[in-house]
Amino acid sequence: MKILVTGSAGHLGEALMRTLRNTNHDVCGIDIKESPFTDKVVCVTDRKGIAKCMEKIDVVMHTATLHKPHVSTHTRQNFIDTNITGTLNLLEEAVKVQAKAFIFTSTTSVFGRALRPNLNAPAVWVDESLTPVSRNIYGTTKFAAENLCELFHYKFKLPGIVLRTSRFFLEEDDNAEMRNSYISDNIKVNEYLYRRVDIADIVDAHILAMEKASRIGFERYIISATTPFTKEHLCELHKNAPQVVARLLPDYSSLYRQKNWKMFPRIERVYVNKKAREQLGWQPRYDFAFIIGQLKNGEDFRSPLALEVGIKGYHEEKFVEGPFPVERDTID
């Protein structure tokens, strides 16, 4: 099949290009930036440019987006143009060429304020039944783009799969308090319990979605590492997470003592990937237990693909207050 990957210079786009170039598929990568994985420099907002790239395309893997780190450096209109209009351009051209599948990379950020429980409430069980509640322009535009994918399946029978990915970047945490309290790798390994996924597992999910899209039609899936927690743990997690983890995965304690790491005192949400595992046949490898085993054996907790893609950052400039500025609640 002929596959178009948007955002090929980005983290996930590059990971997809690296993987798909080693298959029998004919793959074309597009991005606004030149890179070893970008075949054509074009912006998703350029309808004519997109039309040229879409000739004889069978599958679109749409990863190009403005991300959360851009919320403070780009306008809301920029987000609408890229995340909504750009997706619309691709969908309309996909219909024209009778594409077999449209795989849209979304984000767990679409859930927004629904991810934040009240102080004395249990942690939030985040599966596909949770209703998104807007928090910022990033999540709002990604959810709107998801709905466009659903509309195009309903109107034009374009098979569409939405993959709501959790954190997978290797960059520093954007929260200054977290950076000051925890070693960066400590933060990331903790997150594999409830809100992080390795990029290699995300690539596997995209390929499975492509293969099964025509049979499924349209669906949304949460793509995050398999959590060891169940709903019965939610109350205790939001009060004393180390106690829960020690009970379920006692092997982690000695490793954390050796590294001078610590578990988060509270966990406020748990991402659940059950639907993706059952319907896509997805089998993510990098979960907390696997990673603890890797670290105990002196191996890196990140996949070889994650290390190859590495750290890219989201801006050309450097910021003194962190890897990127946090959101401003202002009207431009």
TrEMBL record:
Pfam families: Epimerase. SUPFAM superfamilies: NAD(P)-binding Rossmann-fold domains. PANTHER family: BIFUNCTIONAL POLYMYXIN RESISTANCE PROTEIN ARNA, BLL0593 PROTEIN. It comes from Uabimicrobium amorphum. InterPro entries: Epimerase_deHydtase, Lipid_A_modif_metabolic_enz, NAD(P)-bd_dom_sf. CDD domains: SDR_e. Residues 3-215 form the NAD-dependent epimerase/dehydratase domain. This is Oxidoreductase. It comes from the Bacteria.
